[in-house]
Amino acid sequence: MRNRRQILRGRSAWALLILVAALLAAPPLGAAAPAPPARLKALIVDGQSNHGWQETTAALQATLLDTGRFTVDVSTAPPEGASPAQWASWQPAFANYDVVLTDYKGQMWPESVRLSLESYISGGGGLVIIHAPLATFVTPNLLPGEQEWAAYSQWMALGWRPIIFGTRVTVDDVTNDLNFFPPFTGGSSGHGIQHSFVVKSRRPAHPIMAGLPLEWLHGKDELYHSMRGPALNMNVLASAFSAVSTGGTGEHEPMLWETPYGLGRIVTTVMGHRWFGSGYGPPGSVSENGPDALNCVGFQTLIARSAEWAAGAGVSVPVPDAFPSSNVASVRDPLRGTWLRLGLKINGQHPANDLVMTPGRFALTLDMAPGLWAEPLDLYFAAIVGSQLVWITAGGLSATPGPVSRLTPLSLEAVPLIDGQLTPGTVITVLMLFVEGNRAITYDLISGIVPP
Predict the structure, then answer these.
(1) What is the pLDDT along the chain (452 residues), one digit of tens a residue?
(2) Range of the structural domain that residue 222 is part of
Protein backbone atom coordinates (compact mmCIF):
# COMPACT_ATOMS: atom_id res chain seq x y z
CA MET A 1 0.00 0.00 0.00
CA ARG A 2 2.87 2.37 0.73
CA ASN A 3 4.18 2.07 -2.84
CA ARG A 4 0.70 2.58 -4.29
CA ARG A 5 0.14 5.72 -2.28
CA GLN A 6 3.51 7.10 -3.26
CA ILE A 7 2.89 6.41 -6.93
CA LEU A 8 -0.58 7.91 -6.82
CA ARG A 9 0.40 10.99 -4.89
CA GLY A 10 3.60 11.77 -6.76
CA ARG A 11 2.53 10.91 -10.29
CA SER A 12 -0.96 12.41 -10.03
CA ALA A 13 0.35 15.71 -8.70
CA TRP A 14 2.90 15.77 -11.50
CA ALA A 15 0.17 15.00 -14.01
CA LEU A 16 -1.93 17.87 -12.71
CA LEU A 17 0.84 20.42 -13.18
CA ILE A 18 1.88 19.17 -16.61
CA LEU A 19 -1.68 18.74 -17.85
CA VAL A 20 -2.82 22.26 -16.99
CA ALA A 21 0.38 23.82 -18.31
CA ALA A 22 0.32 21.81 -21.52
CA LEU A 23 -3.31 22.35 -22.37
CA LEU A 24 -3.45 26.02 -21.51
CA ALA A 25 -0.09 26.96 -22.97
CA ALA A 26 0.47 24.60 -25.89
CA PRO A 27 -0.30 26.13 -29.30
CA PRO A 28 -2.63 24.22 -31.60
CA LEU A 29 -1.10 22.21 -34.41
CA GLY A 30 -0.92 23.96 -37.76
CA ALA A 31 -2.42 27.27 -38.80
CA ALA A 32 -5.48 28.59 -37.02
CA ALA A 33 -8.65 27.29 -38.65
CA PRO A 34 -11.57 29.60 -39.41
CA ALA A 35 -14.26 29.68 -36.75
CA PRO A 36 -16.88 26.94 -37.30
CA PRO A 37 -20.49 27.99 -37.90
CA ALA A 38 -22.89 28.37 -34.99
CA ARG A 39 -24.30 25.12 -33.60
CA LEU A 40 -27.59 23.90 -35.05
CA LYS A 41 -30.45 22.93 -32.75
CA ALA A 42 -31.49 19.29 -33.19
CA LEU A 43 -34.45 17.49 -31.63
CA ILE A 44 -34.69 13.69 -31.43
CA VAL A 45 -38.22 12.29 -31.09
CA ASP A 46 -38.57 8.83 -29.53
CA GLY A 47 -40.68 6.98 -26.97
CA GLN A 48 -42.14 3.88 -28.63
CA SER A 49 -40.66 1.21 -30.87
CA ASN A 50 -40.19 -2.52 -31.21
CA HIS A 51 -36.49 -1.67 -31.48
CA GLY A 52 -34.08 -0.49 -28.80
CA TRP A 53 -35.07 3.15 -29.03
CA GLN A 54 -33.26 4.17 -25.83
CA GLU A 55 -29.98 2.82 -27.17
CA THR A 56 -30.68 4.32 -30.60
CA THR A 57 -31.42 7.77 -29.21
CA ALA A 58 -28.30 7.68 -27.03
CA ALA A 59 -26.12 6.81 -30.02
CA LEU A 60 -27.69 9.47 -32.26
CA GLN A 61 -27.35 12.10 -29.56
CA ALA A 62 -23.72 11.19 -28.91
CA THR A 63 -22.95 11.28 -32.65
CA LEU A 64 -24.44 14.72 -33.20
CA LEU A 65 -22.81 16.21 -30.09
CA ASP A 66 -19.44 14.71 -30.96
CA THR A 67 -19.26 16.73 -34.18
CA GLY A 68 -19.49 20.04 -32.32
CA ARG A 69 -22.06 21.17 -34.90
CA PHE A 70 -25.25 20.55 -32.89
CA THR A 71 -27.00 21.03 -29.62
CA VAL A 72 -29.37 18.13 -29.00
CA ASP A 73 -32.62 17.80 -27.09
CA VAL A 74 -34.88 14.75 -26.82
CA SER A 75 -38.68 14.70 -26.79
CA THR A 76 -40.05 11.35 -25.59
CA ALA A 77 -43.64 10.55 -26.53
CA PRO A 78 -45.95 8.89 -24.00
CA PRO A 79 -45.67 5.10 -23.76
CA GLU A 80 -48.03 2.64 -25.39
CA GLY A 81 -51.36 2.67 -23.58
CA ALA A 82 -50.92 6.19 -22.22
CA SER A 83 -54.00 8.16 -21.31
CA PRO A 84 -55.46 10.89 -23.55
CA ALA A 85 -54.33 13.42 -20.95
CA GLN A 86 -50.73 12.25 -21.28
CA TRP A 87 -50.89 12.56 -25.05
CA ALA A 88 -52.51 15.99 -24.81
CA SER A 89 -49.61 17.20 -22.67
CA TRP A 90 -47.02 16.08 -25.20
CA GLN A 91 -46.52 18.92 -27.65
CA PRO A 92 -42.98 19.03 -29.08
CA ALA A 93 -41.90 22.55 -30.00
CA PHE A 94 -40.63 21.68 -33.48
CA ALA A 95 -40.41 25.33 -34.48
CA ASN A 96 -37.63 25.86 -31.92
CA TYR A 97 -35.27 23.56 -33.81
CA ASP A 98 -33.34 23.50 -37.06
CA VAL A 99 -33.80 19.78 -37.61
CA VAL A 100 -35.83 16.91 -36.16
CA LEU A 101 -34.65 13.28 -36.10
CA THR A 102 -37.01 10.40 -35.37
CA ASP A 103 -36.53 6.81 -34.30
CA TYR A 104 -40.17 6.53 -33.15
CA LYS A 105 -42.29 3.56 -34.21
CA GLY A 106 -45.64 3.12 -32.52
CA GLN A 107 -48.99 4.67 -31.78
CA MET A 108 -50.21 7.47 -34.05
CA TRP A 109 -49.39 10.93 -32.79
CA PRO A 110 -52.22 13.33 -31.91
CA GLU A 111 -53.49 15.47 -34.77
CA SER A 112 -52.10 18.63 -33.20
CA VAL A 113 -48.58 17.16 -33.17
CA ARG A 114 -48.89 15.89 -36.74
CA LEU A 115 -50.10 19.26 -38.02
CA SER A 116 -47.34 21.01 -36.11
CA LEU A 117 -44.66 18.85 -37.76
CA GLU A 118 -46.25 19.30 -41.20
CA SER A 119 -46.25 23.07 -40.76
CA TYR A 120 -42.67 23.01 -39.51
CA ILE A 121 -41.36 21.02 -42.48
CA SER A 122 -43.39 22.81 -45.17
CA GLY A 123 -42.10 26.09 -43.76
CA GLY A 124 -38.46 25.05 -44.18
CA GLY A 125 -37.72 22.66 -41.30
CA GLY A 126 -35.70 19.46 -41.68
CA LEU A 127 -36.51 15.85 -40.81
CA VAL A 128 -34.27 12.75 -40.66
CA ILE A 129 -36.05 9.36 -40.49
CA ILE A 130 -33.92 6.48 -39.23
CA HIS A 131 -34.66 2.76 -39.73
CA ALA A 132 -37.56 1.66 -37.49
CA PRO A 133 -39.92 4.58 -38.34
CA LEU A 134 -40.15 3.25 -41.89
CA ALA A 135 -42.79 0.89 -40.48
CA THR A 136 -45.05 3.33 -38.68
CA PHE A 137 -47.91 5.76 -39.39
CA VAL A 138 -48.65 4.18 -42.79
CA THR A 139 -50.80 1.34 -44.11
CA PRO A 140 -50.65 -1.47 -43.08
CA ASN A 141 -48.50 -0.55 -40.04
CA LEU A 142 -51.41 0.95 -38.12
CA LEU A 143 -53.24 0.19 -34.90
CA PRO A 144 -57.02 -0.39 -34.95
CA GLY A 145 -58.87 2.84 -35.68
CA GLU A 146 -55.83 4.66 -37.08
CA GLN A 147 -55.62 6.09 -40.57
CA GLU A 148 -52.49 6.56 -42.65
CA TRP A 149 -50.65 9.83 -42.14
CA ALA A 150 -50.50 10.94 -45.77
CA ALA A 151 -47.81 13.60 -45.33
CA TYR A 152 -45.53 11.19 -43.47
CA SER A 153 -45.92 8.62 -46.25
CA GLN A 154 -44.91 11.29 -48.75
CA TRP A 155 -41.91 12.34 -46.62
CA MET A 156 -40.58 8.79 -46.44
CA ALA A 157 -41.33 8.00 -50.10
CA LEU A 158 -40.64 4.35 -49.26
CA GLY A 159 -41.56 2.32 -46.21
CA TRP A 160 -42.07 -1.20 -44.88
CA ARG A 161 -45.08 -2.58 -46.76
CA PRO A 162 -46.29 -5.84 -48.33
CA ILE A 163 -46.38 -6.38 -52.09
CA ILE A 164 -49.94 -5.11 -52.51
CA PHE A 165 -49.10 -1.57 -51.33
CA GLY A 166 -47.18 1.15 -53.10
CA THR A 167 -44.30 1.17 -55.56
CA ARG A 168 -41.06 -0.75 -55.04
CA VAL A 169 -37.76 0.87 -56.13
CA THR A 170 -34.35 -0.54 -57.04
CA VAL A 171 -31.22 1.17 -58.37
CA ASP A 172 -29.57 0.39 -61.69
CA ASP A 173 -25.94 -0.26 -60.80
CA VAL A 174 -24.63 1.03 -64.12
CA THR A 175 -26.73 4.13 -64.80
CA ASN A 176 -27.77 5.02 -61.20
CA ASP A 177 -31.34 5.30 -62.53
CA LEU A 178 -34.28 4.08 -60.48
CA ASN A 179 -36.43 1.10 -61.44
CA PHE A 180 -40.07 1.19 -60.34
CA PHE A 181 -42.31 -1.81 -59.65
CA PRO A 182 -46.09 -1.30 -59.21
CA PRO A 183 -48.21 -3.10 -56.60
CA PHE A 184 -48.23 -6.90 -56.82
CA THR A 185 -44.74 -6.90 -58.38
CA GLY A 186 -41.27 -6.67 -56.87
CA GLY A 187 -41.90 -8.45 -53.58
CA SER A 188 -42.74 -7.42 -50.03
CA SER A 189 -40.51 -5.46 -47.69
CA GLY A 190 -38.07 -7.48 -45.63
CA HIS A 191 -34.42 -8.14 -44.83
CA GLY A 192 -32.03 -11.07 -44.70
CA ILE A 193 -29.59 -11.95 -41.94
CA GLN A 194 -27.64 -9.14 -40.38
CA HIS A 195 -24.22 -8.63 -41.90
CA SER A 196 -21.73 -6.01 -43.02
CA PHE A 197 -22.35 -4.76 -46.53
CA VAL A 198 -20.89 -2.26 -48.97
CA VAL A 199 -22.70 1.07 -49.31
CA LYS A 200 -22.32 2.71 -52.71
CA SER A 201 -22.69 6.43 -53.34
CA ARG A 202 -25.14 7.25 -56.15
CA ARG A 203 -24.88 11.04 -55.94
CA PRO A 204 -21.24 11.79 -55.02
CA ALA A 205 -21.68 15.50 -55.75
CA HIS A 206 -24.57 15.88 -53.29
CA PRO A 207 -23.50 17.87 -50.19
CA ILE A 208 -24.21 14.91 -47.88
CA MET A 209 -22.06 12.57 -49.98
CA ALA A 210 -19.34 14.98 -51.14
CA GLY A 211 -15.86 13.80 -50.23
CA LEU A 212 -16.96 10.34 -49.11
CA PRO A 213 -15.49 7.23 -50.73
CA LEU A 214 -17.67 5.94 -53.56
CA GLU A 215 -17.92 2.62 -51.72
CA TRP A 216 -17.44 1.77 -48.04
CA LEU A 217 -18.13 -1.20 -45.78
CA HIS A 218 -20.94 -0.62 -43.29
CA GLY A 219 -20.97 -2.30 -39.88
CA LYS A 220 -23.26 -5.24 -39.19
CA ASP A 221 -26.84 -4.16 -39.89
CA GLU A 222 -30.13 -5.19 -41.43
CA LEU A 223 -30.15 -4.61 -45.18
CA TYR A 224 -33.76 -3.65 -45.88
CA HIS A 225 -35.11 -4.65 -49.26
CA SER A 226 -38.26 -4.10 -51.32
CA MET A 227 -39.28 -0.93 -49.53
CA ARG A 228 -42.56 0.37 -50.99
CA GLY A 229 -44.52 3.61 -51.03
CA PRO A 230 -45.51 6.59 -53.17
CA ALA A 231 -41.86 6.88 -54.31
CA LEU A 232 -42.38 10.47 -55.47
CA ASN A 233 -39.61 13.06 -55.88
CA MET A 234 -37.03 10.87 -54.17
CA ASN A 235 -33.33 11.35 -54.80
CA VAL A 236 -31.43 8.20 -53.88
CA LEU A 237 -28.02 9.14 -52.47
CA ALA A 238 -26.71 5.66 -51.61
CA SER A 239 -27.58 2.03 -52.17
CA ALA A 240 -26.36 -1.46 -51.25
CA PHE A 241 -26.43 -4.78 -53.05
CA SER A 242 -28.83 -7.21 -51.37
CA ALA A 243 -27.17 -10.58 -51.92
CA VAL A 244 -29.35 -13.67 -52.29
CA SER A 245 -26.81 -15.55 -50.16
CA THR A 246 -27.74 -13.42 -47.13
CA GLY A 247 -31.49 -13.67 -47.72
CA GLY A 248 -31.70 -10.69 -50.04
CA THR A 249 -33.09 -9.94 -53.46
CA GLY A 250 -30.10 -9.81 -55.79
CA GLU A 251 -30.86 -6.12 -56.41
CA HIS A 252 -29.30 -2.81 -55.46
CA GLU A 253 -31.57 -1.43 -52.75
CA PRO A 254 -31.88 2.25 -51.69
CA MET A 255 -30.11 2.94 -48.38
CA LEU A 256 -30.29 6.74 -48.12
CA TRP A 257 -32.48 9.21 -49.98
CA GLU A 258 -33.88 12.71 -49.72
CA THR A 259 -37.25 14.19 -50.60
CA PRO A 260 -38.59 17.76 -50.62
CA TYR A 261 -41.77 18.92 -48.90
CA GLY A 262 -42.75 22.55 -49.36
CA LEU A 263 -39.67 24.50 -48.28
CA GLY A 264 -38.42 21.64 -46.12
CA ARG A 265 -36.00 18.76 -46.61
CA ILE A 266 -36.39 15.14 -45.51
CA VAL A 267 -33.64 12.52 -45.42
CA THR A 268 -34.52 8.87 -44.86
CA THR A 269 -32.23 5.92 -44.19
CA VAL A 270 -33.06 2.26 -43.75
CA MET A 271 -29.77 1.74 -41.88
CA GLY A 272 -29.34 1.95 -38.12
CA HIS A 273 -30.83 -1.23 -36.66
CA ARG A 274 -30.60 -1.67 -32.88
CA TRP A 275 -32.49 -4.31 -30.95
CA PHE A 276 -32.43 -4.80 -27.19
CA GLY A 277 -29.45 -5.69 -25.05
CA SER A 278 -25.80 -5.78 -26.01
CA GLY A 279 -25.06 -9.34 -27.12
CA TYR A 280 -25.04 -11.04 -30.48
CA GLY A 281 -27.04 -14.17 -31.18
CA PRO A 282 -26.86 -16.67 -34.03
CA PRO A 283 -28.06 -15.50 -37.47
CA GLY A 284 -31.83 -15.21 -37.60
CA SER A 285 -32.30 -15.27 -33.83
CA VAL A 286 -34.11 -12.60 -31.83
CA SER A 287 -30.87 -11.77 -30.02
CA GLU A 288 -29.00 -11.17 -33.26
CA ASN A 289 -28.19 -7.54 -32.68
CA GLY A 290 -25.57 -5.16 -31.44
CA PRO A 291 -24.31 -1.60 -31.68
CA ASP A 292 -22.25 -1.99 -34.86
CA ALA A 293 -24.80 -0.36 -37.17
CA LEU A 294 -25.13 2.77 -35.01
CA ASN A 295 -21.43 2.79 -34.13
CA CYS A 296 -20.30 2.50 -37.75
CA VAL A 297 -18.31 5.64 -38.53
CA GLY A 298 -19.81 5.70 -42.01
CA PHE A 299 -23.33 5.68 -40.59
CA GLN A 300 -22.43 8.35 -38.03
CA THR A 301 -21.08 10.55 -40.81
CA LEU A 302 -24.23 10.15 -42.91
CA ILE A 303 -26.47 10.96 -39.93
CA ALA A 304 -24.52 14.10 -38.98
CA ARG A 305 -24.30 15.37 -42.55
CA SER A 306 -27.94 14.49 -43.27
CA ALA A 307 -29.06 16.42 -40.20
CA GLU A 308 -26.94 19.39 -41.20
CA TRP A 309 -28.24 19.38 -44.78
CA ALA A 310 -31.89 18.82 -43.75
CA ALA A 311 -31.55 21.84 -41.47
CA GLY A 312 -30.94 23.93 -44.58
CA ALA A 313 -27.33 24.61 -43.68
CA GLY A 314 -24.20 24.07 -45.68
CA VAL A 315 -22.60 20.73 -44.89
CA SER A 316 -19.46 21.36 -42.84
CA VAL A 317 -19.08 18.10 -40.90
CA PRO A 318 -15.79 16.72 -42.24
CA VAL A 319 -15.10 13.16 -43.32
CA PRO A 320 -13.45 11.66 -40.21
CA ASP A 321 -10.06 10.00 -40.34
CA ALA A 322 -11.64 6.74 -39.17
CA PHE A 323 -14.10 6.55 -42.09
CA PRO A 324 -14.37 2.95 -43.39
CA SER A 325 -12.81 1.73 -46.60
CA SER A 326 -14.40 -0.47 -49.23
CA ASN A 327 -13.25 -3.65 -47.49
CA VAL A 328 -12.72 -2.72 -43.83
CA ALA A 329 -15.56 -1.55 -41.60
CA SER A 330 -14.88 1.10 -38.95
CA VAL A 331 -16.92 0.72 -35.77
CA ARG A 332 -16.45 3.26 -32.99
CA ASP A 333 -18.60 4.18 -29.99
CA PRO A 334 -19.38 7.87 -30.60
CA LEU A 335 -18.65 8.54 -26.93
CA ARG A 336 -15.06 7.50 -27.64
CA GLY A 337 -14.90 10.30 -30.19
CA THR A 338 -15.16 10.25 -33.96
CA TRP A 339 -14.61 13.99 -34.48
CA LEU A 340 -13.87 15.34 -30.97
CA ARG A 341 -11.17 12.96 -29.78
CA LEU A 342 -9.09 12.43 -26.69
CA GLY A 343 -6.27 9.98 -27.37
CA LEU A 344 -4.37 8.69 -24.35
CA LYS A 345 -1.29 6.57 -25.01
CA ILE A 346 1.07 4.69 -22.73
CA ASN A 347 4.57 4.38 -24.14
CA GLY A 348 3.17 5.44 -27.51
CA GLN A 349 0.54 2.68 -27.55
CA HIS A 350 -3.23 2.43 -27.25
CA PRO A 351 -4.41 -1.09 -28.18
CA ALA A 352 -8.04 -1.80 -29.01
CA ASN A 353 -8.54 -3.46 -25.60
CA ASP A 354 -7.25 -0.34 -23.77
CA LEU A 355 -4.55 -2.39 -21.98
CA VAL A 356 -0.79 -1.78 -22.24
CA MET A 357 1.70 -4.18 -20.68
CA THR A 358 4.82 -2.26 -19.65
CA PRO A 359 8.08 -3.41 -18.02
CA GLY A 360 7.98 -0.45 -15.67
CA ARG A 361 8.14 2.80 -17.59
CA PHE A 362 4.84 4.69 -17.66
CA ALA A 363 4.96 7.50 -20.24
CA LEU A 364 1.44 8.86 -20.67
CA THR A 365 0.78 11.23 -23.57
CA LEU A 366 -2.31 12.95 -24.94
CA ASP A 367 -3.54 13.57 -28.47
CA MET A 368 -6.56 15.79 -29.03
CA ALA A 369 -8.71 16.60 -32.08
CA PRO A 370 -11.40 19.30 -31.75
CA GLY A 371 -13.82 18.41 -34.54
CA LEU A 372 -15.98 21.49 -35.06
CA TRP A 373 -16.04 22.42 -31.39
CA ALA A 374 -15.51 26.14 -30.85
CA GLU A 375 -16.94 26.43 -27.33
CA PRO A 376 -15.22 25.65 -24.02
CA LEU A 377 -15.81 22.31 -22.33
CA ASP A 378 -14.92 20.99 -18.89
CA LEU A 379 -12.01 18.55 -18.97
CA TYR A 380 -11.98 15.82 -16.31
CA PHE A 381 -9.00 13.65 -15.47
CA ALA A 382 -8.91 10.67 -13.08
CA ALA A 383 -6.45 7.95 -12.13
CA ILE A 384 -7.15 4.58 -10.54
CA VAL A 385 -4.30 2.77 -8.81
CA GLY A 386 -5.41 -0.60 -7.53
CA SER A 387 -8.81 0.11 -6.00
CA GLN A 388 -8.21 3.80 -5.27
CA LEU A 389 -9.81 6.42 -7.54
CA VAL A 390 -8.54 9.97 -7.48
CA TRP A 391 -9.80 12.91 -9.56
CA ILE A 392 -7.15 15.42 -10.53
CA THR A 393 -8.96 18.76 -10.34
CA ALA A 394 -8.01 22.40 -10.72
CA GLY A 395 -7.90 22.57 -6.92
CA GLY A 396 -5.75 19.47 -6.44
CA LEU A 397 -6.39 15.79 -5.81
CA SER A 398 -9.96 14.89 -4.87
CA ALA A 399 -12.12 11.84 -4.14
CA THR A 400 -15.04 13.51 -5.95
CA PRO A 401 -15.20 14.50 -9.63
CA GLY A 402 -14.20 18.00 -10.64
CA PRO A 403 -12.74 19.50 -13.81
CA VAL A 404 -9.01 19.95 -14.12
CA SER A 405 -9.56 22.74 -16.64
CA ARG A 406 -12.13 24.45 -18.82
CA LEU A 407 -10.94 24.92 -22.35
CA THR A 408 -11.94 25.03 -25.98
CA PRO A 409 -10.79 21.78 -27.65
CA LEU A 410 -7.74 22.15 -29.84
CA SER A 411 -5.36 20.05 -31.89
CA LEU A 412 -2.63 18.46 -29.79
CA GLU A 413 -0.22 15.64 -30.47
CA ALA A 414 1.80 13.57 -27.98
CA VAL A 415 1.57 16.09 -25.13
CA PRO A 416 3.42 14.50 -22.15
CA LEU A 417 1.34 14.06 -19.00
CA ILE A 418 3.25 11.55 -16.87
CA ASP A 419 6.65 9.93 -17.32
CA GLY A 420 8.09 7.73 -14.61
CA GLN A 421 8.83 4.21 -13.39
CA LEU A 422 6.20 1.99 -11.81
CA THR A 423 6.88 -0.81 -9.37
CA PRO A 424 6.18 -4.44 -10.37
CA GLY A 425 2.58 -5.49 -9.92
CA THR A 426 1.20 -1.98 -10.36
CA VAL A 427 -1.98 -1.41 -12.36
CA ILE A 428 -2.93 2.17 -13.29
CA THR A 429 -6.05 3.18 -15.22
CA VAL A 430 -6.38 6.72 -16.53
CA LEU A 431 -9.67 8.32 -17.56
CA MET A 432 -10.10 11.63 -19.37
CA LEU A 433 -13.37 13.11 -20.58
CA PHE A 434 -14.90 16.29 -21.96
CA VAL A 435 -18.15 17.35 -20.32
CA GLU A 436 -20.73 19.97 -21.30
CA GLY A 437 -22.99 20.80 -18.39
CA ASN A 438 -23.82 17.40 -16.91
CA ARG A 439 -23.36 15.45 -20.16
CA ALA A 440 -20.22 13.61 -21.20
CA ILE A 441 -19.35 14.42 -24.81
CA THR A 442 -16.35 12.16 -25.32
CA TYR A 443 -13.89 10.18 -23.22
CA ASP A 444 -10.83 7.99 -23.39
CA LEU A 445 -9.63 5.28 -21.05
CA ILE A 446 -6.39 3.34 -20.86
CA SER A 447 -4.71 1.00 -18.36
CA GLY A 448 -1.04 0.28 -17.80
CA ILE A 449 -0.01 -3.02 -16.21
CA VAL A 450 3.45 -3.84 -14.84
CA PRO A 451 3.83 -7.60 -14.43
CA PRO A 452 4.88 -8.76 -10.92
Answers:
(1) 334 334 434 444 444 444 554 454 444 545 455 666 789 999 999 999 999 999 999 999 999 999 999 999 999 999 999 999 999 999 999 999 999 999 999 999 999 999 999 999 999 999 999 999 999 999 999 999 999 999 999 999 999 999 999 999 999 999 999 999 999 999 999 999 999 999 999 999 999 999 999 999 999 999 999 999 999 999 999 999 999 999 999 999 999 999 999 999 999 999 999 987 666 677 666 667 789 999 999 999 999 999 999 999 999 999 999 999 999 999 999 999 999 999 999 999 999 999 999 998 999 999 999 999 999 999 999 999 888 899 999 888 899 999 999 999 999 999 999 888 989 999 999 999 999 999 999 999 999 999 99
(2) 40-315
Residues 137 and 48 in one domain: yes
- The reply to whether 23 and 53 lie within a common domain is no
pTM above 0.85, yes or no: yes
> Are 259 and 398 contained in the same domain?
no
Kindly tell me the burial class for residue 245, based on how many C-beta atoms sit within 10 Å of its own C-beta (0-12, 13-18, 19 or more). exposed
Residues 292 and 171 reside in one and the same domain:
yes
Count of domains in the chain?
2
Element (H, E) at 302: helix 297-310
Residues 276 and 344 in one domain: no
Region for residue 312 given its phi and psi (left: phi exceeds 0; alpha: psi -120 to 50; beta: otherwise):
left
Same domain, 28 and 47: no
